[in-house]
Write a structure and sequence with these properties.
Layout: H1 3-15, H2 23-30, H3 34-46, E1 51-54, E2 57-60, E3 66-73, H4 79-88, E4 92-100, E5 104-112, H5 115-127, E6 140-147, H6 150-162
Antiparallel strand pairs: 1-2, 3-6, 4-5, 4-6
Length: 170
């Protein structure tokens, strides 16, 4: 597991835990040293995540929200429908990322949680000289999705699958 994936999973574990998670427990879970976890926490904090260190472990200082990383594929024309599907069912598209074979993981924050956010994002894409990040990998990309519950995330995944956007997990 690469560092970026491990940090994403650490965030997922903290977001779904009601009690502090010790650094030793995280180190054991990922088969890395405690020092690697300390470095990961510094990088996670640098991405503006509010992590609290307590004497019993780490806590994510945010409302308890379920988080999931999903892999999707679609055309440029389907971007609006994909993002609207996520927000209409109660989710937030936190970011978009791709796994480039040379550069590794490339990620950009989205924080899209409403149709208004979707429209604003699309206006910015259409008005600039840039293309969506998914173009780097021929349409394949990932979104970190948050919602109020795992059930909501399941609904979002099911609808994205029904629309043909969701890639099967391997």
């Amino acid at each position: 597991m690469k560092g970026t994936e491990r940090r994403q999973e650490i965030l997922h574990l903290l977001a779904n835990s009601s009690a502090p998670v010790s650094g030793s427990a995280l180190a054991n879970h990922f088969s890395v040293s405690r020092q690697v976890i300390v470095q990961d926490m510094a990088l996670i904090r640098a991405e503006r995540n509010d992590i609290i260190s307590t004497n019993r472990g780490y806590l994510l200082n945010a409302p308890l929200r379920a988080t999931r990383l999903i892999k999707v594929y679609h055309s440029d024309e389907a971007i609006e429908d994909e993002l609207n599907t996520i927000v209409d069912l109660g989710g937030t598209a936190v970011d978009v990322s791709v796994r480039h074979r040379v550069y590794g993981r490339l990620k950009a924050d989205l924080n899209v949680s409403s149709r208004r956010d979707v429209r604003k994002f699309l206006e910015e894409i259409r008005s600039g000289k840039s293309t969506p990040l998914k173009e780097v990998t021929s349409g394949y990309h990932y979104h970190t999705i948050t919602a109020d519950s795992e059930e909501t995330l399941d609904l979002i995944e099911q609808e994205l699958k029904t629309k043909g956007y969701l890639c099967e997990k391997k």
